[in-house]
């Protein structure tokens, strides 16, 4: 296989000139650049990208820490990252964790070893105190709000969105409202949802909050849980349209009417929600993923808020 010494001999230039051409250095004459390119073509030379990246001090590769794939919310955010990465000419490595804190730290170490230029954290298992030290080795962007100077973020004001949902339900006459979450109070989103509930309805009854919900089946199980109680809620706010669809299916199978007997609101404006005419909170996660990629490729520590929107349909009255 040819090397840069052979290219230099054939082109009649120095090795350093070949190196500058390979690294797209601007200060090379057009004549010498053409001679080097001719030699490269004749010798069918392919540069070692790892070596070139090492010289440049960057890989043009970004990692995305994601707890699960095949999850509508995280998949939507990842789609935004991938879409923007094509425009920015960056490769993306997906780093699934299942919320394993050790696995998460293992991925962050890839910044220290220069395998990645930066990492986007869609959701995390570790405290920021464990994550921040890695920001000295590469760019880190979060998909949640953080005041930390070392970390950029593209975030949604989930508290404001949830407060608006609960306030709307209260204005519609609902005082007994249930909700589902993906994780317990270890999740920031869950804590913000519970705070918004308290601010509108008061303390959260244990029977009105159910976590571990991510799928249509989980939604059906959640509806069963809520309906089999002594008093059924008059509205349910689900943490995803797929979960809301499961609730929708079970409620109808129980002979109840939507929204007359139970109002249902979902999240993320997914196709299944559009078909079932579910009111939904669109957190614009695709846009959040795009913005996170933009921030990390520029090494920006900006705090960029992504606007949410509530789409009102027949399921909420």
TrEMBL record:
Enumerate the CDD domains for this protein. Answer: HTH_LacI, PBP1_CcpB-like
Q: Where is the HTH lacI-type domain?
A: 2-56
Signal peptide coordinates: none
Give the coiled coil ranges: none
Q: Which UniProt keywords apply?
A: DNA-binding, Transcription, Transcription regulation
- What is any Pfam family matched here? Peripla_BP_1
What Gene Ontology molecular function terms does this protein carry? DNA-binding transcription factor activity; transcription cis-regulatory region binding
Q: Which InterPro entries match?
A: HTH_LacI (IPR000843), Lambda_DNA-bd_dom_sf (IPR010982), Peripla_BP/Lac1_sug-bd_dom (IPR001761), Peripla_BP_I (IPR028082)
Q: What domain of life? A: Bacteria
Q: What is this protein called in UniProt?
A: LacI family transcriptional regulator
The species this protein was found in: Paenibacillus rhizosphaerae
Lineage of the organism: Bacteria, Bacillati, Bacillota, Bacilli, Bacillales
């Amino acid at each position: 296989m040819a090397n840069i010494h052979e290219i230099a001999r054939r082109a009649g230039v120095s090795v350093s000139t070949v190196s500058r051409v390979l690294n797209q250095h601007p200060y090379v004459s057009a004549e010498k650049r053409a001679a080097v390119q001719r030699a490269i073509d004749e010798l069918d030379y392919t540069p070692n990208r790892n070596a070139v990246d090492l010289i440049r001090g960057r890989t043009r590769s970004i990692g995305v820490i994601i707890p699960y794939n095949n999850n509508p919310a995280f998949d939507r955010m990842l789609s935004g990252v991938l879409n923007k990465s094509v425009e920015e000419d960056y490769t993306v490595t997906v780093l699934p964790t299942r919320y394993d804190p050790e696995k998460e730290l293992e991925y962050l170490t890839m910044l220290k070893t220069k395998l990645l230029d930066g990492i986007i954290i869609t959701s995390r298992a570790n405290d920021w105190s464990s994550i921040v030290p890695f920001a000295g080795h590469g760019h880190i962007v979060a998909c949640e709000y953080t005041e930390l100077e070392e970390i950029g973020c593209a975030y949604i004001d989930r508290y404001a969105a949830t407060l608006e949902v609960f306030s709307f339900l209260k204005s519609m006459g609902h005082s007994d409202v249930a909700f589902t979450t993906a994780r317990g109070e270890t999740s920031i989103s869950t804590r913000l949802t519970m705070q918004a509930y308290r601010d509108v309805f008061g303390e959260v009854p244990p029977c009105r909050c159910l976590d571990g919900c991510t799928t249509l089946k989980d939604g059906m199980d959640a509806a069963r849980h809520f309906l089999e109680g002594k008093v059924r809620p008059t509205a349910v706010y689900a943490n995803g349209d797929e979960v809301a669809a499961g609730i929708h299916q079970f409620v109808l199978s129980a002979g109840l009417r939507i929204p007359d007997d139970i109002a249902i609101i979902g999240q993320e404006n997914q196709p299944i929600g559009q078909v079932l005419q579910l009111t939904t909170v669109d957190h614009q996660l695709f846009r959040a993923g795009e913005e996170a990629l933009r921030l990390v490729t520029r090494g920006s520590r900006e705090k960029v808020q992504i606007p949410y929107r509530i789409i009102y349909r027949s399921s909420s009255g």
